[in-house]
Amino acid sequence: MNKLVESADAAVADVRDGATLLVGGFGLCGNPENLIAAIHRKGVKDLTIVSNNCGTTEQGLGVLLQARQVRKMVSSYVGENKEFERQFLSGELEVELVPQGTLAERLRAGGAGIPGFYTATGVGTQVAEGKEVRTFDGREYLLERAIVGDFALVKAWKADAWGNLVFRKTARNFNPMMCGAGKVCVVEAEELVPVGGLDPDRIHVPSIYVKRLVQGRGYVKPIERRTVRPRGG
């Protein structure tokens, strides 16, 4: 039951070229910083990455993009990364843009064993190209396929050695859906607590979804755009 491994590098040692990685986080909030760095050090190539976005040019998943380790991105928002823009416009990077709610549901469906679902989001737009359209109660819906990845890379706030997870506030974002949709779920946690140290009613993801767990270290927790109100007076 103890799922702790000695390092982030050991946790991703079997990630191979061409793998599909589901990476939690929203912008730079809730990013698995240690695991992304370990993937960078490993140097695997031709990755397909499913994540809400690709971080910034210098941070988050942008590190893998700069190193030319990414072949395809499946994302909702990509506006903060200039290198992403350059690679996309030059044809170096394959991109699948997915509405944010649809992306979350495709991941949730993958974790639940549901192969597809219908949604009205994207009907009549480029999102609908090549997809089955059906009418229910007089309204058109698209068939969207579930997403399942080879690995899910996730950051939790607290975890026990069994892999029960708690996320902190908005850093929860896409991370729980990633846990279910990855064939191998790898988690880094800011704080490890003894088994039994988490209130069962507060656990966001139960241990059954988690394959490996590592103690996270040295978090930077960067902010994409720091915005503050002007001082009064």
UniProtKB/TrEMBL annotation:
Q: Which PROSITE patterns match?
A: COA_TRANSF_1 (PS01273)
Top-level lineage group: Bacteria
One GO molecular function term of this record is:
transferase activity
Transferase keyword on record: yes
Cross-referenced SMART domains, in alphabetical order? CoA_trans (SM00882)
Asked whether the UniProt record includes Ribosomal protein among its keywords, one would answer: no
Give the UniProt keywords, A-Z.
Transferase
Please name the InterPro entries in this protein's record.
Answer: 3-oxoacid_CoA-transf_A, CoA_trans_fam_I, CoA_transf_BS, NagB/RpiA_transferase-like
Q: Name one Pfam family in it.
A: CoA_trans
Which protein family is it in?
Answer: Belongs to the 3-oxoacid CoA-transferase subunit A family.
Put simply, this protein is called: Succinyl-CoA:3-ketoacid coenzyme A transferase subunit A
- Please report the organism this UniProt entry assigns to the protein: Anaeromyxobacter paludicola
Q: Taxonomic lineage of this organism?
A: Bacteria, Pseudomonadati, Myxococcota, Myxococcia, Myxococcales
Designated gene of the protein = scoA
